[in-house]
User: Fold Capsule polysaccharide biosynthesis protein from Roseibium aggregatum.
Amino acid sequence: MSGAVEPSVATETRPNVVRRVLFLQGPLSPLYKQTGDCLKALGFDVHRINFCAGDWLHWHGKGCVSFKGQPSDWPAYIEDYLRKHEITDLVLHGDQRLYHRLAVEKAVRLGVYVAVTELGALRPGWMTLERTGLSTLSHFPSEPAAIRRIAETAGPVDLSPRYPSSFWLQTAPDVVYNLTNVFLKPLYPAYLRHTIYSPVAEYLRGAVRLLTEKRRNRAAEHQLAELQEKAVRYYLLPLQLEGDFQLRRHSPFQSFEEVLEVVFRSLAEVADDDVHLVLKSHPLDVGFEDWPGVANQLADRFGLQHRVHFLDGGGLAKPFEQALGVVTLNSTAGLEALQAGVPVKTLVPAHYDIAGLTHQGDLASFWNNPAQPDRDLLLTYVQALAASTQVRGSIHNSEGVAVAAKNIAEKIANRDLNAFGAYVDPPPRLARARALGVPL
Assistant:
């Protein structure tokens, strides 16, 4: 999206209107097909636009059409489709994919109610479901008082773990979807995927990484244990993927290497000489970028040769235990750190970047005086988040898919997204993000 768009008179204000729901691309699972079936059972008119063979594989038949034009044809096509079919609701996964952000712009201007899904902020066992936008474009409030009101209105929320992830359901649907697109590319020759790497190359690299996982985990655990036994004072920086929309669309940076440069420079200029930085690889990184090599080059450049450490494996729980703080661009790892009681500094406005939760000063002030998260406010934020923008279910659990489909359908049917007053306009993080150069 080029920015927040003021909605016209919404369909929900007009009585006795037949609800017509259009689905675009969903996650790589049967979730959207099952959600559509639930809405059909409730009497809704359900439509679907496919962009590639993988989409068709997930959902085809009555109510489905294929867009095979050039990406430049899409804005006119989707506007015409919304008008011609009198669409009242638009559902899509991830609001910043090329086709999706253009569709959201058209839909909002036409008064279409937009529902956006994403993997759950409180995962596993949850899906995110927000109205109009996510992350920087989320309409969830950022003021602590407003968040407290949501939690008070919503009441207690059951946050117990459910629907554990299956490795098979995390990997197999992804492989089938993308290889279908590769081999059946001639059927949708103009389709522009939202990922930045070739799926085949990614799977080959991923297979090699999987073979070395145990060895890398052991090495990371040993390296971390040495740091902790020596009582090294360190901050943690979890890496984000180059293809992550949190980097590509919700930050002013073109590459995570630029993020590392900002952090390394600040550490060298401001932090005490005995403060170290621990980098943690992303669990889904397949190795297109040589992050250890990049880190070594930057360490040499800024005189940090013995103060930077790279963990190419393991989880986040152990590094959190003795970390002085976590520096992140806007990763959900920051929320995990807050839940572990670790101070967090985000470089751009993340969803959880709220006064009282994250460090509100600049990065320079974080190194020597990190603000501790308010535990009560954090619990309130999680409660408000779960009640208003999260639904139970998971695409990585067979039972969880059906649960998520039912819950999402019910929320859409009731126009109950960002409930309990969790929708404020304009998006409260957008102005701060733009001031930092985020291109929204």
Summary: Residues 20-165+381-436 form a domain with the Rossmann fold fold (CATH 3.40.50). The chain is about 40% helix and 15% strand. The longest strand covers residues 113-119. The first helix runs from residue 31 to 41.
